[in-house]
């Protein structure tokens, strides 16, 4: 808005505009949210890459429950975890995908946050390349963020940049694709060695973000990956039996305590660092055990009752695990399904995850939840 023009009408409009902006900011618990990770939080970055079919979420069925029923690059029927956590923090949805921004729009957007996540990506640079084609690995996501920080410093000075970043939430949801690939490649290496590398990479990215100014981290740990439709189908085809695929569940479970110890050490070492780590394994296990209750979440805020815990809503074949593309069948009752497709939760399931990250008790999120983190 051309606020410098000396017209009374314009001045009044400018004041209104500023008041609206203040009101919006008053409901936000933090100035900005920056998002890193994989398809669990991607909001469209992959649509700008030369990714393969399975690493894209731009088929008509994606976003069937999104405003206008349009695919947006989210691996969901509607909002994903990044959107719903951002909403609880007072934003309309996740900040936009980094690759969707232009030289102009990035300048107005960066003070409110940006989403760098890329479906198929992981902690290792090679993760995703085979199945997903081009992805943005964590190392490049952090590099993109460093460009944004440099731009902010140039335009607003290093002091204001530092203040803004130190108050913002940095959401990280990554690592599942590293585990999937390790497991699919036979997982025959030394699991202990693989897991040490996994946690060392995680630590290096948290440290790199800290060096760039991040202080408040919301870290989403690995869910029981063996219970996704894709891994149930894998067990069925490999062994002929139904159930979760055990070996990858064991790996998923082991990452949690290693990640928890690693973040504890980092917070001891790095002044001003604070974090909120979800125990996503415990969260999802709780849903499997109690699909019809939500005692562990906010009773009044959600009424979800899952009746389909094994099959994806969009997809054909056993457990609907063959991919959600143009021709895949779609279920009617999305809110009854835990899984949207072979590997991703429905909007209803990520709503529960977001609420638990935000306001959950210490069994599911520790040492503090995201609301407490935001208010620090
Ligand atoms: C996209 O990737 C495919 C293989 O995955 C490759 O053959 C093709 O040349 C790539 N296209 C571009 C524009 O990079
Ligand atoms: C958190 O809530 C769950 C479900 O209600 C309960 O089983 C668990 O004991 C609670 N944990 C803590 C630390 O209060
Ligand atoms: C639960 O949700 C209600 C309604 O949205 C809200 O007023 C209340 O503060 C929430 N409680 C917690 C513990 O988050």
UniProtKB/TrEMBL annotation:
Pfam families: Lipase_GDSL (PF00657). GO terms for molecular function: hydrolase activity, acting on ester bonds. Keywords: Hydrolase, Lipid degradation, Lipid metabolism, Signal. It comes from the Eukaryota. Residues 1-26 form the signal peptide. SUPFAM superfamilies: SGNH hydrolase (SSF52266). Belongs to the 'GDSL' lipolytic enzyme family. This is GDSL esterase/lipase. It comes from Oryza punctata (Red rice). The lineage of its organism: Eukaryota, Viridiplantae, Streptophyta, Embryophyta, Tracheophyta.
